[in-house]
Amino acid sequence: MKRCVVGIRRPGDPEPPSGKSMPTVWFPSMATMAAVLSEDNQTLLRLIRDKRPKSLTELAELTGRQVPNLSRTLRMMEGYGLVELKKTVREIEPIVLATSFKILIG
Q: Confidence band (pLDDT; 50, 70, 90) for 20?
């Protein structure tokens, strides 16, 4: 798993210059970042990394959460580039892309 550099960029802010230490994931606000990277969501990412479930149904059994709830959470995380949802013929396999985060503020 790679370490993910996180930053805050509000809508309308100018595009920052790219660079090695620049964030790879941008959130529109601190509140959004806090919600996406909550303790529960970080635990979910680690569980997926460690157990490697092959489907959302299998992940639901591991977590005790409902599939629709997991699907919403994972699609939101996919939008920020934290997970990949690999579609097979019958299932969707969650793949974690980052479990370690470096947050840049200011």
A: low
